[in-house]
Amino acid sequence: MFRRFAISFFLVLVGVCAWSRTRPHYGGMLHVEITGDPWNGADGLARRLILDGLTRLGNDGTVQPALAVDWQSDDAAHHWQFRLRSGVQFHDGSPLTAIVVVQSLNLSCNANCPWTTVRAVGSSVFFTADSPMPHLPALLAEDNFLIALPVMSDGTTPANLIGTGPFRFAASNHGILSLTASESCWQGRPFVDSIEIRAHRAIHDQWLDLSVGRADVVEVPPEELRQAGQQRLVIAASPPVELLALQISDSGALANPMLRASIAAAIDRDALFNVIFQKQGEVTASLLPQKLTGYSFLFPAERDLNKAHALRGGLTTPPLTLGFEGDGAMQLAAQRLALNLHEAGFDVQTPDAHLDAHFDAHHASHPDFLLRELPLEGADPAAAMEVLLHAAGETVAVSEQSPPALFEVEHTYLDRKTLVPLLNLPRAYAIGSRVRDLELRADGTPDLASASLEDAP
Amino acid sequence: MRRFGLSVVLCIAVRFAANAAPAPSPWEQPAAMLAEQIANILGPGQVRLTLRNLSSIPANEMPAIQHFLEQDLKAHGMTVAGEESADAVRVTLSENTRQRLWVAEVVEGDQMRVAMVELAPDQPAPILAAGGLLLRKETVITAQQPILSALETAHALLVLEPGQIVIFARAINGWQEQKRVNLTGNAPFARDPRGILVVSQDGTGFEGWFPGMHCTGSLPPANDATAQCGASDDPWAIAARGAPQSLAFTNASAITGGSPPALKAFYNATRNYFTGVVSPSLDVELPAFYSAALLPRSAGNTALLIAGIDGKVRLAENGGVSPVEGARDWGSDLGVIRSGCGSGAQIIASGSGEAISDSLRAYELPALEAVPVSAPLAMQGTITAIWPAPDAKSVYAAVRTAADQYEVDRVSALCN
Predict the structure, then answer these.
(1) Do the Cβ atoms of A224 and A329 come closer than 8 Å?
(2) Packing angle between helix A257-266 and helix A305-312, nearest 10 degrees?
C-alpha cells in the first residue's frame, strides 16, 4: 500500500524548502523554458503572470481575494456578489471596473459556464444561476476565468493580453516571450525586472540550458523526476496536483454501463505507475486524493481482469478510439491502456506518434475514450471536486462537506464509469542556482512573481 | 456485486487534557461511536475484526484502540471471532489534512457498507527550548491580511497592514477593533512592503512610516484613537524615542547618557531596504541594510547593528563599521531586547535556514562574534518582520503562517 504512495518525498521537501529567510533582491531577468504553450493549458505560465482572477488559490489551497476583495451569496448559492478591489489598473492604465470584468468573463466563458448570467452593478459583479454554485469563488480562481482587458480605451481590441498581473507583455520573437515587471501592480512590483519564457523547448534541451546557465527555471515531468534527481538538479516538486483519468463516452458504442464498468476493471494502474510514470505520484481510483479526504482507499484500484470479462459478457463493440491530451508519457500511457483493454476483449486504437503530430481535431474531440489530466487543487475537498468535474466538462454542485457525504457523492459519480481515475501526479521544476524564493502555487505551477535573483544588482 | 452503503456518521471532537489526571484515553469515545455504527449495520452476532493504521497515530496505540473496539462491539452484543464468521469488519484509522477519520468497511455476505467517525487532530506537544536563555512567545493578534508592524500599549493596539492602520482598544475579551485609517492614495507599494509604528515623543500618541507616507495619531486613554497620514519621504525611526536602548552616541563617537534623539534612516520606497543614510549622521558610511538595532556594549556605549542587503551583519561603533562573525545563518531581521539576563541585552535574530518554519534565537555579542545564548524558538511560519517593543524587554515578530494567515507574536526571554 505504502509503495503506491511512494512519491519522492525527498524531492517534495526540496521543493517546499526552496525559500530562504533573507529578504529578496530586486532586479534582473529570469529565464524560463517550457515544453508547451505559454498562453494555454497547464503550461500557460504567461497567462498567470499577466492576468489575475477575481479570486486566487493561496499556497495552502484556500480561496483568497484577488481582484475581488470579498464576496457573498444567498443561502442557496444561486446568487453571488463579488465586490471589486478599488484602485486597480490594467497595464495600459485603464481602470478595472465591474463592466470590464463582465465583458471579460462573457468572452472567456461562453459555454459550460457555472452561471447563467453575470452583470455589473456599481463596483460589484453579480452572478446568477439556476443551479446552486456553492464553490463559485474556487471556480473563479481557475485559468479560464482570468480577467483580460477586452477593449482598449480607443475602442480597439488589444493585440496582446492586457491584464492587471505582476508582469506585462513586452514582445514575442522567435518563440521567446518577453514580459516586464508592472511597476503599478496592485500586489506590488515583482522582484525581477523581466522574464523571458522560451516555449516549445524539449525537456532535455531545457536541462542542458539550465546546466550552462542559459535557463533559470525548467520543467521536470513526473516521469523524469527520478532522472532529474540522479542528475542532482535542484527541484521544486508539488504534491499531486493533477488527476490522470480516463474519460469514457457514455454514448455510442459505450452507452452500456456494463461495458464501461468492464473497461474500468480492466485497467492496470500499477503498470502506468511503475513503467510509464516511473513510480511518481500515487495510484488512485478516487477523484480526490487520500490526503484531502482520508477515504480514498475505499475505492479499489486493483486490476480485475476476470471481473472485466464477466462484466463484458458476450457483448462486443466496434473498434474504439482512445485519444489523449499532451504527448510523451501521455501517449505511452494511452498505448498501455489500449493493451489492457485488448486483454479484456476490446479493440482499441490509439494514434501513433506520427499521427499524433497531425491528430485531427475533430477526431480527437470525439474519441470513445480520452486520457486527460484534470486539476486537483485546493484545500476544500468539496470545492476541489467541483472544480475537477467542471474541468471534465460537467457542472456538478457539490454542497456536501463531511467526509461521509462527500464519499457518497464521489461514489455515486464514479459508479457511472464515465470518468475512471488512474493516478495523482505532481508537477515539478528544476531551478538554477541564482533563483531564490521560488514557491509553487496550489496548482503546482511556479509563482515567478515571488522569485528573485541572488545576483540581482 | 458489492453494494456500498453508508451509515449515519457522528462528528466528535477529541480534546487532549495533557495535564489532567487521570486522563481518559482519547480513543475511547471514537471507538464507542464506531462500534455503535457497526452494530447498527450488522446487529448482534459474530464478526471478524481487522484493524489497520494509515494515520499518524503511533503504532503502540493500536492495541488499546483494538481493545476499545472489541469491548464496545461486545457491549452491543457482537462477539469478535475468527475466520469462521461470515461477517467481517475492517477498520482503517485514516486521516486527511484537516482531521482524523476512522472508517469501518462492514462486509455482510456480498454487500459492503461503510461507517465513518471524524476526530479532531491532536495538538503537537509544546517543545521547550533549552540553553542559557529561554525564549517564549505569545500571539498578540492574527489577521488574514499581511501585518507589517504593530504597536501595543496598555490600552491600544495598532496594526499596520498594506494600505491601512487598524486601531484596536483593549476590551474584557481581548482586542476590539475601533477604527481603520486608509493609507491609499500613495504609489503602489513594493512586493514585500514594510512599515514601522513607534510611540510618539510625548508618549500619548504614535508615529508610523509606510513607503512614501508618514502618519501621526493619538492613543487612548489620554485621547481617542486618531490617525492622520500624508505623503512623505522623510526618514523612518529605527530606534524608538525613550526606549532604554535608544541611541547613546552622536556624530561618529559613542557616548553614554543624555537624552538622545531617535535614530532615523532613509527608506527606498520602491524596494525593501534602507539606503544606509541615517539621521543624525554617524559619520561613518553605512551600506544599504534591511534592519538595524541599537546594541548596548559592555564598555557602556551603544552600537548600531545592521543586517545588510548583501547578507552580512555589521556593527557600527566608535566611528567604524566592522563585520560580525557567527551571523552567517541569520536572516534579514533582527532586534535587541533588554532581558536583564546574561550581559543584560541580547540580539534576537531570525534564522536563514531552510526549515519549513522560521525560528528566532538569542545571541550576545561580547566582541565581534555572535554567541548563541538560547535554543532556537520555532515560529509557526515565515518571519516577515521584527521590531522592538516600546519597553525594549521583548521584540515583536510578524509571521506568515502555512495557512497564509498572519500573526504578531511577542517574544521575550526568561533567565535560566
Answers:
(1) no
(2) 160
Query: Which of chain B's residues have a Cβ under 8 Å away from the Cβ of A187?
Result: 191
Query: What would the grid cell of residue A77 be?
Result: 448559492
Residue B243 has pLDDT above 70, yes or no: no
Q: What is the pLDDT of residues A326-340, one digit of tens each?
A: 778 999 999 999 999
ipTM: 0.80
DSSP string, A136-176: HHHHTTSGGG-B---S-TTSPPPSS---SSSEEEEEEETTE
Q: State the cell numbers at A245.
A: 483519468
A residues 121-180 near B, CB within 8 Å? Answer: 166
List the single residue in B54, B118, B354 with the smallest CB-CB distance to A20: B354
Distance CA B351, CA B378 (A): 10
d(Cα A395, Cα A133) in Å, to the nearest integer? 9
Chain B residue with CA closest to A299: the answer is B4
Which domains, from first to last, does chain A contain?
2-44+165-239+427-453 (3.40.190.10), 52-145 (3.90.76.10), 242-425 (3.10.105.10)
User: In degrees, to the nearest 5, what angle opens at C-alpha A447 toward C-alphas A431 and A332?
Assistant: 65
Domains of chain B (ranges; CATH) run: 10-119 (3.30.2300.10), 133-415 (2.130.10)
- Of B105, B191, B404, Cβ closest to residue A189: B191
Would you report the helix, strand and coil content of chain A in percent, each value rounded to 5? 30, 20, 45
Binned at pLDDT 50, 70 and 90, residue A361 comes out as: very low
Tens of pLDDT, residue by residue over B176-200, are: 888 888 876 555 667 888 999 988 8
Which of B8, B96, B114, B334 is the mutation pick for testing A, counting most A CBs within 10 A?
A: B96
DSSP string covering B3-64, please? ---B---EEE-----TT-SSPPPTTHHHHHHHHHHHHHHH-SEEEEEEEEE-SSS-GGGHHH
- Closest-CA distance, A125 to chain B, in angstroms, reads 23
A184 contacts on B by Cβ (under 8 Å): 187-188
Q: Which residues contact B13 (CB under 8 A, 6 or more apart)?
A: B119, B120
The three cell numbers locating residue A385:
471536486
Cβ-count burial of A166 within 10 angstroms (0-12 exposed, 13-18 middle, 19+ buried)?
Answer: buried
| Residue among A21, A64, A189 minimizing CB distance to B331 | A21
Cell numbers given for B332: 534579514
Q: Are A35 and A202 in contact (CB under 8 A)?
A: yes
Within 40-79 of A, beta carbons closer than 8 Å to B belong to 58-60, 62, 64
Q: Tell me the backbone φ, ψ of residue B23, rounded to 5 degrees.
A: -85, 130
Residue A169's alpha-carbon distances to A99, A196, B66, B368, in angstroms, are 23, 10, 62, 49
pLDDT for B356 equals: 63
